[in-house]
Amino acid sequence: MNPRGDGKPEPTDPDQLLRLIDLELAQKRAARQQAPSPYRGFRMASFIFIFAVIIGVALAFYYVFYLGGLDEVRARNQAQPTATPSSSAP
Q1: pLDDT (mean) for 33-41
Q2: End-to-end CA distance of the chain
Q3: Where are the alpha helices (DSSP H) in 1-90?
Q4: Boundaries of every domain in the chain
Q5: ∠ at Cα 47 (44, 49), nearest 5°?
Q6: What pLDDT, on the 0 to 100 scale, is given for residue 50?
Q7: Local confidence band at 78 (pLDDT 50, 70, 90 cut-offs)
Q8: Sign of CA dihedral 23, 25, 26, 32
Q9: Please, are residues 63 and 69 in contact by the beta-carbon 8 Å criterion?
Q10: Rounded to whole angstroms, how far apart are CA atoms 83 and 73?
Q11: CB of 11 within 8 A of CB of 17?
Q12: What distance in Å separates the CA atoms of residue 2 and residue 43, rounded to the nearest whole number?
């Protein structure tokens, strides 16, 4: 059962084999928990970016609908009278 032939003797007792496998898995699990995640900084930056976008959308919503930003845009786009000569010439 040792295809690599690395010189390790194979245990014949199944309980001993299970204990060795459990020990190896526990060591790998402990090593993985101690090592920091390589994407931790990227994940934190993405959460901060999403939070900033949500705050920006909330501020834009507040400006447009509560402070009258939409009314200012409508007032600028209304037709304003221009000084044109009248067509009622004698």
Answers
A1: 78
A2: 115
A3: 14-34, 40-65, 69-77
A4: 14-75
A5: 110
A6: 98
A7: confident
A8: positive
A9: yes
A10: 23
A11: yes
A12: 41
